[in-house]
Amino acid sequence: MVITPRPRPKLNHFRFASSRRIATICLIGLFLPMALATADTPAPAIIPLPVKMEVKTGVFTVTPETVIVADEASKATARQLSEFLKPATGFALAVTAQAPVDAKASITLVQDQALARLGKEGYQLIVTPAGIRIAAAGQVGLFYGVQTLRQLLPPEIFSESVPAKAVMWSMPCVVIEDQPRFAWRGLMLDSGHDFQRKEFVKRFIDLMALHKLNLFHWHLTDLGTWSLEIKGRPKLLEAVTRAKNIKKPGFYSQDEIREVVSYAAARHITILPEIEMPGHSPPALIAYPELDCPTPYPAGWPGNGGPWEFCVSNEKTYAFLEEVLSQVAGLFPGPYVHVGGDECPKKHWLSCPSCQAKMKAENLKTGEELQSYFFKRIGKFLESKNRRMIGWGEILEGGLAPKATVMSWLGMNAGITAAKAGHDVVMAPTTWAYFDNARIPVESVYGFEPIPKELTAEQAVHVLGAQAQMWTDSHPSEDRIDALVYPRAAAFSEVVWSAAASRNYDAFAVRLQAHLRRLATLGVHFKPLFIGTTVGRWDVKKKQEKQVVMEWPLADGLKGAGRYDVMFRYEEGSARLMIYSVEIIQDGKVLATDKHFGFSGVNGYNNEYQVKLPELSDMPLTLRATVSTDREDSRGRILIEKMP
Asked: pTM value?
């Protein structure tokens, strides 16, 4: 039950937002000054930040003589803790029901119903020089207490073997009471555009658990591949059903699915399976063309002339999907099944005689209402399997199924609409939570607020939480997935776990400095943080709706030819700075340009720009940007950094 480290990345590329964010590291580089501690008692760099943490004087040291004491209900979690600690320390810590009389120190795990006030996932962790006590109302909370304990130790604790250099396994004395803000703390991995090895999926789950994320959304089918074995439907797995650009063909057998489900459950992570429908379904339609409408696809269709969506008037479609969903419900014990529902144009159905007959028979006026009919049938079937249906925001079209939950991805509007109508929602907007978009900076992810201001307190209770997505349309390698997900998933974990009022990016960036050492020890190929050299500032007093050009002389930050990143970092004000293009100018000539829309505000988006410079002469350089603002008053700075 230990995260299996991968080849360790070099540590010579740690970069941070600015020099004022770099703090002195003490106690083996792990404990950093925070507002929760005094200057004499530095607070641990815990991510996500606990709700309440008080640092005391002294340390507790784990030794070979340390004993783990657990009540009957907590023995499994205690054994997990022992297994987590063994690879790096070399200590095989015993788990007992009672500490021996001569025990010098112990770690106690206990269920305590007095802590029910912290909820089922909350915990209390008390560290003194004489011992440790982790208590919670249930095992989920105890497990999260164990994750915090691991972060209290030196980062070498995440090594798969005993370090060559001796390490003192000490942690600071603390009193922590902690509980999550949201019940739904999700991270999605797309195995439907391209396939990932089972071992990688399990490691993905391990890293989620370390960050107290509890919902693994597994996107299993899409236009790239059908990655889930369905008994009796072998054609789904044939090579002919896969997209030509698939780099890692494969599928998960049902036995492998059960193994991963069990692995996740041991880490208190629920798996949400997704079977895309009615669109995004080429593999199924190539395997079983009788499930498609019998008419040609219109020009410019998403499938590029090939199949895309099921024929929703065909009873064979429902028989097939019910067969698939029955097996899915049998494999995944979680309460939800995700049915996709996104990006399905209706024009093909409107040219299908069978669909037209169905619309007439059911008194349906539009293609959207026909899609709603489809999802209401699917939702009712899932209810018969004791499962709830969740889908992307487009399942609102034509009328939402009675008990459906909406996952809002095209901004927050679908979630707002659904919550106002009394439906549960999960916020997963592209602007802040699509990790396949490398241009979303860590700072923007950290600034994401899942509760929209448009909702009343009564409506906001329908926001179950939030989720980040790792799509694989671009067929990234496993190392590339690492770099896209981390450290942004660490920032996201704090969005969904920590109290909203406690979030402070500057303080987080300092804690992240220590946390990256943990990730490095685990072999995570994370993307280094942006440090940058400040090359200019903006201070816009008036609203500027029309695009204007702003320029700044580049006296610093450029070190010869190569690729540079330019970031527009908001600092204060009510307006967002909209950026349309960035150019590097020398002697009136454009040397490099990046044209894309982004903005820098309280929540930034796409506000990093990349330029590739040739060998430079001694002539002065200028940074030019085309910008506007959405209201008055915006201030910030521009940073530039040469990339490796």
From this structure: 0.85
